[in-house]
Design goal:
Order of helices and strands: HEEHHHHEEEEEEEHHEHEHHH
Radius of gyration: 38 Å
Largest sheet: 4 strands, antiparallel
Structural class: alpha+beta
Shape: rod-shaped
Helix content: 55-70%
Number of helices: 11
Amino acid sequence: MSTFSGLTRAYSGLAAARAGLDVTGQNIANVNTQGYTRQRLETSAAASPRPSLFTTGVRPGEGVLAAGITRLGDAHLDARVRITAGAAGYTAVRAQAFAGLEDGLREPGAHGVSASLQEFWAGWQEVSNAPEKDAPASTLLAAAGQLTSRIAAGYREVESQWATSRSSATSLATEVNDAAAQVAGLNRQIRSAVNAGTPANELVDRRTQLTATLAGLTGATVRDNADGTADVLVAGNPLVSGTTARTLQVTGPAGIGEPGTVRIEWTDQPGAPAGVESGELAATLSLLAPAGDGGPFAEAAAGYNAFATTLADQVNALHTGAGKGPFFAYQADRAAASLDVLPTRRGDLATGEPGAGGFDGSVADRISELGTRPGSPDAAWSAFVVDLGAAARTELQGNALAEVSATSALQQQLGATSVSMDEEQVNLLQYQHAYQGAARVMTAVDEMLDVLINRMGIVGR
């Protein structure tokens, strides 16, 4: 070993310790950065040169080499986070939608349809007791108007929720397209960095965050490639392939009553469904489905219409039979929204049988008893409320379980990849001591050279 090779060896240790301090400083600086994955310096011992004819004695290695900076990510945990994010996104959107539908019922309560039905039947009962008086008739007409208003309000709230979800589907598709374009751009940068031999850990962190976002939106999966890029697949079809990204578009009706089905299609293949099966986008599509395909909004609207039709038909059957014409009017395709009360004064009400005199309230009495009969409007409304409430509870429970799973996966990922200040403090001391030791070796070699160069021949005089 020559004296100068000792200097080179000490310098390699100095450089490696400085690189280790740089990596530790990067970790500490990003301790609170969301999505950052901790890094470690990889070192390896430099082998001694091949011996020659003039080599004498035992030679150690040539110091240390900084082999690279490793990103301490976990592909298995990343995949689990994406899978659970897709499931949690799907259940969260549906649970929120069902909660909104349930809130729109306002049941049980003084502002629900049930309370209005009771007031409506009670109004008919009062009219039957005093058919010749104006006050009970006015009370009945006011109760009927309130009942139709609440039915129409509930139906229009469902229409509004459908329209909001339709708009949300478009926004989510735009968000997916933007994220996919960013992933493709990051793939391009990562591939260039890998080819140049420079670290791309921060770029990989950003891509991992974006793929997790895409998984939450579409249930997308990720396939890593050998060149550092990653493909993003939606239902097995590439959304991002290397440095190329495809786009999605929303097609279908713009209103709840319009024919057709809202779908997500590939922009470059119009008419071909993207087959999104999980995530927020799939959940939104399921909410917008027609009633026959299980769409909750369409089914709720159909439930309102069925109830309004049942109420109007049963009342009209008795009211028309008494010679005064129908009590309610409605449009067949939007019965709940168009339900209207035709009588405007006491004289328009059919309170008794024709020719039975002004004090006959038998027809009004029979109408007041409609609420207690089998197959009554009250029973239809109660079944509608119970079914919707049970469905909402099921969705909420499913979402709670999915959230627990997603939170657990995220915590495991953070525990394995986030920065530990205790660990970084230990690394900081280790690299500091290594740097000081290498510097001390260089000082010792320098002193040796000083003796060799400046004091040779005068030592011992």
